[in-house]
Amino acid sequence: MRKTFDAELQELNYEMIDMAAAAEDAIDVVTESLSSADDAAAKNAMEMTRHMDEMERDIENRCLRLLLQQQPVARDLRTISAALKMVTDLQRIGDQCANIAEISLLLTGQKQTSALAHIRTMSQKAGVMVKRAIFSYVNRDTEAAQAVIALDDEIDALFRTIKAELVELIVENRQEADQAIDLIIIAKYLERIADHGVNIAQWAIFCVTGEILG
Predict the structure, then answer these.
(1) Are 59 and 12 in contact (CB under 8 A)?
(2) Which of 34-43, 69-78, 94-103 has the lowest mean pLDDT?
(3) Which of 31, 111, 160, 179 has the most CB atoms less than 10 A away?
(4) 3-state SS record for the chain
């Protein structure tokens, strides 16, 4: 019985890794759509996030089966409970990627701004945070989780830089105000994605220690 349960837990780990990878890929693709003004990339990102909705349902169903069909001990219960929380964060990351993709379609053909370089950096860091957060969960690595939480300060600093640059752009050139506002919204979505990465890292720590951070 325990071997079967452990095998199910391992499958849960694999599914969580796959969904985190999908989230990271969606972040990468949506960043490409911003950098290249590529409609196809934006639409691809939106399709990827729809697939993440299916992954969320599969993981939730597995977690519920484990809770109902088995009798998990405290440690296992923390693992399953954390997965249920994390999958919600991953799904919301997918939603935010879809929102960014929709905005990027509006930016097609518009002038590129220097703020995009910071946005690309921001998206790369956010993707790393999500990947490392899931790694910390799968490997029960609290140090890795703490490192993810520490990265959030860098994301917040980048957001402030982007916002300041774009506000200055609006003041200097009202004709570019609409685009600047769209980019601020995109940066805000990326900040939220990073926040979800922090949430995942905090749940990874909960798996090991039973302590709820935040």
Answers:
(1) yes
(2) 34-43
(3) 31
(4) CHHHHHHHHHHHHHHHHHHHHHHHHHHHHHHHHHHHCCHHHHHHHHHHHHHHHHHHHHHHHHHHHHHHHCCCCHHHHHHHHHHHHHHHHHHHHHHHHHHHHHHHHHCCCCCCCCHHHHHHHHHHHHHHHHHHHHHHHHCCCHHHHHHHHHHHHHHHHHHHHHHHHHHHHHHHCHHHHHHHHHHHHHHHHHHHHHHHHHHHHHHHHHHHHCCCCC
Question: How far apart are the C-alpha atoms of 119 and 113, rounded to whole Å?
Answer: 10
From residue 42, give the alpha-carbon distance in Å to each of 35, 36, 37, 176, 178: 11, 10, 8, 22, 19
Token pair in block for residue 72: 């998990």
Burial of residue 17 (CB within 10 Å: 0-12, 13-18, 19+) is middle
For the whole prediction, is pTM greater than 0.90?
Answer: no
Average pLDDT of the residues of the chain: 87
CB 213 within 8 A of CB 205: yes
Using an 8 Å Cβ cutoff, are 181 and 171 in contact?
A: no
Name the residue with tokens 């009798």: 71
